[in-house]
């Protein structure tokens, strides 16, 4: 019984603060910022990868980003992303690509603002430091995707050599495509850990952020499944928005996921507040 009381207290604290502190509006801000940052990030990352000689990066990056999205939502917008990335650009240091990197960092800033509110902390770090940190996140994500793209290019070659020498491995080669989804999931989890620990002001441990990450992952799966089912059975987006349907679907999906993500931070903050209150009572 006591566990249910504690859970109800934590849930009331988290959802109450989410509603009181404009959580729904912040979810909208994060969703729109994510859409505005997605294309610039992929343009910058693809240009940098091409500069470094990794021409196969674009396709890999698109898969990593969209493999965690439901098929009904990902396919239309992924096709548009591929069209954008197929345009040749002069070089990584062109003005347009640098502007793309800046706009991509705006998405990081939107996530930071939402988590600062969720964790109930004030941002006192210098603006220049925050902007450089956001740009560093964009660069780290780019090089991370680049490393993964190289691994995915090398993996089939290694698998082919292994099968030629070890015949018993051949029946298992059909599961190698699963690695694409496994990698996408791992990237998602690591991204959540990084943003919860380092983006907002203050300090948090892995123990502090774990409940919110689990909630976000479960909510991501449930929310995306329900929204995908809605699109396949009841949605009238195509009739309502015509050619804008795919972008409106992406915005709505990201809005749902952003609300779940911010609630994950709220749950972490509520649990941390509860633990502090218990320590206060004991002393």
Give a written overview of the molecule.
There is one protein chain. By secondary structure, this protein is mainly α. It has helices at 2-20, 23-51, 57-66, 71-85, 95-118, 127-165, 178-198, 206-233, 237-241, 245-282. α1 crosses α10 and α5 crosses α10. It is globular and about 65 Å long. The two termini are 24 Å apart. The mean pLDDT is 78.
Number of helices: 10
Amino-to-carboxy terminus distance = 24 Å
Q: Give the rounded overall mean pLDDT.
A: 78
What can be said about the biggest beta sheet?
none
Shape: globular
Protein structure class: mainly alpha
Number of strands: 0
The share of residues in extended strands comes to under 5%
Topology order in helix (H) and strand (E) letters: HHHHHHHHHH
- Determine the fraction of residues in helical runs and give it as a percent range: over 70%
Radius of gyration: 21 Å
Note poorly predicted spans: none
Record keyword descriptors for this entry.
283 residues, mainly alpha, 10 helices, globular
Topology:
Elements: H1 2-20, H2 23-51, H3 57-66, H4 71-85, H5 95-118, H6 127-165, H7 178-198, H8 206-233, H9 237-241, H10 245-282
Quick overview:
With 283 residues, this protein is mostly helical. It has ten helices and no strands.
